[in-house]
């Protein structure tokens, strides 16, 4: 009976990770909107910016306010923003409502990413917490995998890819109602939390700064790959958008596999070796992606990059927490702020692609991200020794 009650509480929280995965549909959405509205690369790059900009603005304030209003309420608020954003295109879909929809999705997702993991601590603890967090990330990855397939299905069978927003709105509403009616004990209210200035002041430490920039680059790489894959397949292979979306799903499948196996690999090898070797392989794969022009070749190199980059966010996040364990709350908020790298990379990719005239411009920007991550991996040992 106790086990049944446990799952009754944990399942709606885990389902929140499915809502969190909606943000990854931004990749295929850029390709659809670019064709539908005739946008330039730069204007299309504004769409991811509308999503990930809010991580820069909201992460630290939400972490502070969550102490006051509670984790569950923060998650419910995030789902409200997500629902409004996803239902809006059903009533009116044009260039502006598209921007508004993704901005609201970004606001909701920023709040959700800050509050959902801590909420899981309200229902599980000890060894179960680690496995539950892993389960949550797998749920998120599966949601991201399904997104491009759903967009293609809606385009073929429901009259337009934008119909997926109504499906997302329905799922979000069900998730909200489910979580609302499940009793979850409120965490202890913490007074006098850290200020925004104190948290941002951690960047004065060169160790934290290097790792923070690493978070920006790894998220920029992930979002950048997400957006460039369908455009690359359209440009080089001449595929339709619906078929090109399968390339994005292959990317997410490889990323899910990489994250899953990374748990076992990191139990056997050091973080530095894992970090460095993965980034070396990813850099070589990116060179291959620049040169190859076959469908199979593109998918192979895309999947290699996805597999190698899958566990890097967790590695950097863990290293940052170990650098200043007494400042774990502040560092957590700061690292989530780095997710705003997903807003920066697509804009730079748009500028580079318009300048080059091909998607090679985008790939070069991603090359800079991987190169910095490789630098960061070589610096890890020095950073840790300073701490020790």
TrEMBL record:
Keywords in alphabetical order: Cell membrane, Membrane, Transmembrane, Transmembrane helix
Predominant localisation class: membrane
TM spans (from-to): 7-30, 42-62, 74-93, 99-120, 141-159, 165-185, 206-229, 249-266, 273-292, 298-319, 331-353, 359-380
Domain of life of the organism encoding this protein: Bacteria
GO cellular component labels: plasma membrane
Pfam family, one: MFS_1
Membrane topology, record value: Multi-pass membrane protein
Annotated compartments: Cell inner membrane
Sequence ranges assigned to domain Major facilitator superfamily (MFS) profile in this UniProt record: 5-384
Matches recorded under InterPro entries: MFS, MFS_dom, MFS_trans_sf, MFS_TsgA-like
MF GO annotations: transmembrane transporter activity
Protein name: Sugar MFS transporter
The organism of origin for this protein: Bacteroides uniformis
Organism lineage: Bacteria, Pseudomonadati, Bacteroidota, Bacteroidia, Bacteroidales
